[in-house]
Amino acid sequence: MSIMSVLLSAVNWPWSLQTLLIGVVVIITTVLWKRAATAGLPPGPRGLPLVGNLFTMIRSKDSPVVYQEWSKKYGDVFTVYAFRHPRVVLNGFSAIREALVTNADVFSSRPHFPVPGSPDQSAKGLLLEPYTARFKEHKKFTMSALRDFGVGKRSMEGKILEEARALSDVITKKENQSFCISRLLKNTTCNVISSIVFGSRYEYDDVKGKELLQMIEQTFSTKTLGLLPIAFPVARVIPSLKKTSERYVNNQRKLMQHIREEITHHKETFDPNDIRDFVDAFLLEAKKREGDEHSTFTEEQHVTLVRQVFLAGTDTTATTLHWAVLFMILHPDIQQKVQQEIDSVLGPNQDPSMEHRSKMPYTEATLSEISRMAATAPMTALHFTTSDIVFRGYHIPKSTRVEVNIWSVLRDPQLWPEPNKFDPARFLDDSGNFVRREDLIMFSMGRRLCPGERLAKVELFLIFTSLLQRFTFKPPEGSAVPSAEGVFGFVHSPVPFQLVAEPRKK
């Protein structure tokens, strides 16, 4: 079969012209880019001439699942190609830990990727920053600032519980009518992040709050293919890709403008003796470094860092909570067991606290199984090697992109028998005590471990227990049971579904 035939079969006939343009772009890009060194790399699936495995990578709706299947044939470490440039894919807990922990010095960096919408491409926040002194400095600052503003403290628990009560009030007003809970959960997690970053929250009907949430949702709803022109500008000749990427970049500019306005307001009311939130903490650090021409605490770094904190802290946690509600609907027996434990420890009126977690092993086990099954972030951001390395017998050269397949760990049948079965007992011993497992790596591992892990776990426990203390979740009467199949994108999310929240009798 010719290359052109393959290209034409990739899309429906009405899109054939754009497919032809894709072929032209591929050829031009291949000519312009110098082929990376490939000798000694792990073997992998055969790709098409010129484009390699690119079409599989960008067209597949479930590339983490495809990668896991390929690992059965090629091993836990294999190579795919985007055009003629290799990407080493890591699958399985052992290989991922060996790379990200044992060989962290080599595997902890990031490749160059444009910061969409930013006028300063050197301001990469934490997510896109290579493993440099700048990264270490800003991660240390971020972790310290998050601790200062309550992460891991009772004061933060109070803010989360305030949002859980606000969420419950909105749900109560539904009065047993069916609704989709996704947007409400995002409102809740957005407000938690907002209280840390901006020192304030948004009412559910607040116009600015709605605009902020819409920008976050649009960010995560963009398809991977639509971002191709950002990494490969020549792809802008394809109208649909150009339109999608421009819409994405414009949305990011709007989000960054929203953040700039908040920072400006904070500057107008800034008091170095009264640091109110994350924005103030950054302003204080920048003030300390005034006159230092090498300071990395710039305004654009401030904006980019806040944007990343907002995006990561709002959507991923809300999506995991969305999965939590779905699994309770699909498994009413488990929902009932969790509620029985909540009732025995908290009763109908006492607010949950992280101090209660050790007394609620079944709830903790259920949340762990939700996190495993949800696999909300099934692939990490691209890693990048900083030097040559012989890894598991293969020569991986410096400046090689590395994909880390978290999904392959969380759905590994060797670690989790019947991995597609929802079973909290995986995290309980014979006496019913909770068992923590190191292979539950939904926040990745090593030096790129998500800095928001602790906050996310507190939110999940407090909001989940608060909801099940007050409501029993069911499918609407007469409707089909919602699907447990997810949708892969920036995050792995449930297919939208309707539910009924039945208030529990006190």
From TrEMBL:
It is an enzyme of class 1 (oxidoreductase). It is a multi-pass membrane protein. One of its GO terms (cellular component) is cytoplasm. Keywords: Endoplasmic reticulum, Heme, Iron, Lipid metabolism, Membrane, Metal-binding, Microsome, Mitochondrion, Mitochondrion inner membrane, Monooxygenase, Oxidoreductase, Transmembrane, Transmembrane helix. It holds the Pfam family p450. It is found in: Endoplasmic reticulum membrane; Microsome membrane; Mitochondrion inner membrane. The keyword ATP-binding does not apply. Its EC number is 1.14.14.80. Its cofactor is heme. The chain crosses the membrane at residues 15-33. GO terms for molecular function: heme binding; iron ion binding; long-chain fatty acid omega-hydroxylase activity; oxidoreductase activity, acting on paired donors, with incorporation or reduction of molecular oxygen, reduced flavin or flavoprotein as one donor, and incorporation of one atom of oxygen; steroid hydroxylase activity. The keyword Mitochondrion applies. It catalyses: an omega-methyl-long-chain fatty acid + reduced [NADPH--hemoprotein reductase] + O2 = an omega-hydroxy-long-chain fatty acid + oxidized [NADPH--hemoprotein reductase] + H2O + H(+); (5Z,8Z,11Z,14Z)-eicosatetraenoate + reduced [NADPH--hemoprotein reductase] + O2 = 19-hydroxy-(5Z,8Z,11Z,14Z)-eicosatetraenoate + oxidized [NADPH--hemoprotein reductase] + H2O + H(+); (5Z,8Z,11Z,14Z)-eicosatetraenoate + reduced [NADPH--hemoprotein reductase] + O2 = 20-hydroxy-(5Z,8Z,11Z,14Z)-eicosatetraenoate + oxidized [NADPH--hemoprotein reductase] + H2O + H(+); N-[(5Z,8Z,11Z,14Z)-eicosatetraenoyl]-serotonin + reduced [NADPH--hemoprotein reductase] + O2 = 2-oxo-N-[(5Z,8Z,11Z,14Z)-eicosatetraenoyl]-serotonin + oxidized [NADPH--hemoprotein reductase] + H2O + H(+). One of its GO terms (biological process) is steroid metabolic process. Its main location: endoplasmic reticulum. PROSITE patterns: CYTOCHROME_P450. A cytochrome P450 monooxygenase involved in the metabolism of arachidonic acid and its conjugates. Mechanistically, uses molecular oxygen inserting one oxygen atom into a substrate, and reducing the second into a water molecule, with two electrons provided by NADPH via cytochrome P450 reductase (CPR; NADPH-ferrihemoprotein reductase). Acts as an omega and omega-1 hydroxylase for arachidonic acid and possibly for other long chain fatty acids. May modulate the arachidonic acid signaling pathway and play a role in other fatty acid signaling processes. This is Cytochrome P450 2U1. The lineage of its organism: Eukaryota, Metazoa, Chordata, Cephalochordata, Leptocardii.
